[in-house]
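Let us work through a complete example step by step.
Step 1: write down the sequence.
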Amino acid sequence: MKKPYLIAALCTLSLTQAQAAGLYLYEIGSEDLGLASAGAAARAMDSSTIFSNPAGLTRIDGDRVDTGLQLLFGNTSYHITDGVASGDDPGNVLQPFPGGSLFYSHSVNERLKIGLGFWGNFGLALHYGDWAGSALVKDATQLALTIQPTIAYRLNDQWSIGGGIGINYGYFALNRSTARGEALENDHDWEPNLRVGLLFEPNTATRFGLNYASQAKYDFQINPNVTFQLPATGQIHNISIPLETQVNAPQQLMLSAYHQVAPEWAIMGNVGWQDWSAFNHNQSAIYGEVIASKPLYQDTLHLAVGAQYQANSQWRYNFGMAYDSSMYKDQSQGVLTTPSGETWRFGTGLTYQLDQVSTLGFAAEYARVQSNKAPNHLFGGEFDTGHLYFLSSQYSRKF
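Step 2: predict the structure and record it as tokens.
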């Protein structure tokens, strides 16, 4: 969230920010992954358009099911450099994280289409382990799942509209070290959001798509009191962390274009915006003292380009790259448990037509996330450049 791209963190528990942004991903285990999301709101080639642009359902004939599985893994390491705490660094905090999606579309008639989407594109698993700050966070897992009923209508040969209500379920689990051993806390929350889209097709080779998604917030209740003892001095710190932590998915807008330049080749691209600056109006609690937090976040820009090559009636190849600017105003003023920065994505994939009604696809994507510093009295340090890898497989069937 996603996005832009907190590619490496989800845990919003922090000593300096009560309400931090969460992890929002474009990757949902569909063909989009191999294109680095390029053309997402305009391509509308399968029922996963429920996520990327609901209006695109008008291009899907009959009944169709698209399903995908995905795995995220990589390296995002944190090192204590400025804090007074001594002890082990957590090192790589990123744990392998699975994902998936299921989409179904149905043609009521030539103009009216309905569909149902189920996906998870928001969340991550972090393992800090037995590091110097294990009293704050040792393990953290958060995920969000969305179910979205969708409707789309073709106004005429060129214009289509569509929309859906997302029913979002969020889950948060936090494991910490205490004097009595490990303590696990968890909570969940439900939150709706709106997704609407517009599709314009000036001719059979070209289309433009516009997709808007409203903000979604997840509120999780945790125990606010943490007692930490510095190993070197024995000094005890009674830290009051916020009672409510939030993981947010910002409102966002995506404009995409798709053009078939030849029977074998198509090119596509995106321009997008995400409203991360909306999360600057928060308060923070540091050592029990509530203070006004300074604006950490800024709106982000998304750009992507991609191409498809239809080698023959059975094989299609995808290529794409994308750029997302950093949600942080200053990379030296980040949040301890929220590494983020400008992100470059590079994807490739292929689909194979198994028979007249079914296809199988595979895709891979690499994401490089800018390093950032996290100033903090006890555990201040730096996150190295993040390297993330996505693998996915997809299966589609027409009925």
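Step 3: interpret the result. Helices lie at 40-43, 49-52.
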